[in-house]
Known about the structure:
Strand order of the largest sheet: 6-5-4-7-8-9
Shape: elongated
CATH architecture of the largest domain: 3-Layer(aba) Sandwich
Radius of gyration: 30 Å
CATH superfamily of the largest domain: NAD(P)-binding Rossmann-like Domain
Number of strands: 13
Structural class: alpha/beta
Strand content: 15-25%
Number of domains: 3
CATH topology of the largest domain: Rossmann fold
Amino acid sequence: MARQVEGTESDQETGFTQSGRRLLLFGxxxxxxxxxxLIRLAVAVGAxxxxxxxxxxxxxxxxxxxxxxxxxxxxxxxxxxxxxxxTGYGDIAPVCxxxxxxxxxVITPLRFIFLIVLIGTTIEVLTRKTRQEWRTRNxxxxxxxxxxxxxxxxxxRSAARSLKDAGYDGNTIVVVAPDRDSVDLATRDGLVGIVGxxxxxxxxxxxxxxKAGRVIVATDEDDTSVLVTLTARRLARPSCTIVAAVRxxxxxxxxxQSGANNVIPTAESAGRLMGLSVISNTxxxxxxxxxxxxxxxxxxxxxxxxxxxxxxxxxxxASGQLVLAVIRNGIAHRFDTDVIRQLxxxxxxxxxxxxxxx
Length: 358
């Protein structure tokens, strides 16, 4: 997969295409300058070695200044070098049909590869630019019900990691951040990135917010979160779920009024967890376990299985899955309401289960 590569330095800084739209940055393997040079050097040396070996092993079909079959390894490498870098000097030439055929079928393609390596920087820039623009257009054309994460600090990275742990494809998670370093980190994590201010309507449109299924607002300032939430709610479809983090709990109502479906008070939540851990070490460990999706217990939402039709939530509890809520017709019925007595087709469950129990 490619990172964003533009033809000019200003293009690299702004991240815009010639049409004025931002390029998306995709995750994948990325090589530094030294690694790129070493790779090209290895390709060039490999091409020379193949060509020289071919000439040497068919040395009886080559003449050197009229002398047939007097080709040494040095002569073979000399012929390979001048043949791959130029059209040759004519002092060493193939005379047999097999040797001439080998020049056509092997030496000539190796010459193209060698020349591409020599001018590889220019070709690489053009190729990456074209490929990146194609991938960007193709992504915007086909993306649907994806997740946008605004901000890639500690909260944003944790949210994206939870989605990936839950099985979401990295190409359906778009990170929007104002600095290139954060976006580069997101692409290294296998996500799609876009450099821009999440408060901007144009930036969110570039992230296809109108087709998004979820927006996670994980900025570091509450006022920024409010503006991002307002903009996202105005542009997104009504069914889009917006979850926002808030540092101060008194700002939670403002975020809900701005259009957030769920608001997470990060500072207070962390404080309560620390207090709970002090009061009850076991309770604190269980909560910590629930928050870590990679081990132990986890909270998941899923559809009921065919075998669970007609069962009661209590019967599921006995099987090792603790039912927290049953979602029926879009309404969540918690375990303490005792409204759902039997599971019906179309019900969804929110359960606590072992992370290895899928």
